[in-house]
TrEMBL record:
Function: Catalyzes the transfer of a formyl group from 10-formyltetrahydrofolate to 5-phospho-ribosyl-glycinamide (GAR), producing 5-phospho-ribosyl-N-formylglycinamide (FGAR) and tetrahydrofolate.
Protein name: Phosphoribosylglycinamide formyltransferase
Superkingdom to which the source organism belongs: Bacteria
Binding positions ((6R)-10-formyltetrahydrofolate): 106
Annotated family: Belongs to the GART family.
Chain positions of site Raises pKa of active site His: 149
Pathway annotation: Purine metabolism; IMP biosynthesis via de novo pathway; N(2)-formyl-N(1)-(5-phospho-D-ribosyl)glycinamide from N(1)-(5-phospho-D-ribosyl)glycinamide (10-formyl THF route): step 1/1
InterPro entries from the UniProt entry: Formyl_transf_N, Formyl_transf_N_sf, GART
EC number: 2.1.2.2
Residue stretches making up the Formyl transferase N-terminal domain: 1-186
């Protein structure tokens, strides 16, 4: 399966996916990495691994239409079948979501629907979790729709919040879980084991 990864930052989830592919745990190919940030570490990781690395930002275009068309052109020219958001800090335009229905995944550092939505990213999430006093947080992999952190949930895993946690210590443990479950969730799509019924994501059994 041809995958496109969208990332804005250092690319640690991209690296986790690449490692899963190299270790034979994920039968997929990352054909392109797209970033809105020209200095993103994810682009450097892509180049180092012989993957097309593209900086595409809305600021480069005179209209939303031109921006969307450029992204779609890059995706279609590579026969992309699945889009994976890995720390991508821009909302995906609805035209792209409609072009790839139920084929765009995102990972969120909390147990949605808690601590999601506009502005809930990175350390903002972990600070909110600690400030609220919850005992359990975690990681959610979900399908992307036209609302922030709203699409059907594919996979979740819990992470305990410790009494002495800071946003930084909590983020470190949550990130480790992200690196574990994102390749697993992608594998379900690669192997055709995902059935979507409304908001429910049903994982098909081996038999």
């Amino acid at each position: 399966m041809n995958i496109a990864v969208f990332a804005s930052g250092r690319g640690s989830n991209l690296m986790a996916i690449l490692n899963a592919i190299k270790e034979g745990k994920l039968n997929a190919r990352i054909s392109v990495v797209i970033s809105n940030n020209s200095n993103a570490g994810a682009l450097e990781i892509a180049r180092a691994n012989g993957i097309d690395a593209l900086h595409i930002s809305r600021k480069q275009f005179s209209s939303d239409e031109d921006y969307v068309n450029r992204i779609l052109c890059e995706l279609k020219s590579r026969n992309i079948e699945l889009i994976v958001l890995a720390g991508y800090m821009k909302k995906i335009p609805p035209e792209i979501i409609r072009e790839y229905p139920n084929r765009i995944l995102n990972i969120h550092p909390a147990l949605l629907p808690a601590f999601g939505g506009l502005g809930m990213y990175g350390m903002n999430v972990h600070k909110a979790v600690i400030d609220y006093g919850v005992k359990i947080t975690g990681v959610t992999v979900h399908i992307v729709d036209e609302e922030y952190d709203h699409g059907p949930i594919v996979m979740q895993r819990a992470v305990e919040v410790r009494d002495d946690d800071t946003p930084e210590t909590l983020a470190e443990r949550v990130l480790k879980v992200e690196h574990e479950i994102y390749p697993q969730a992608i594998k379900l799509f690669v192997e055709g084991k995902v059935k979507i019924s409304g908001r429910k994501v049903i994982i098909k059994n081996e038999n």
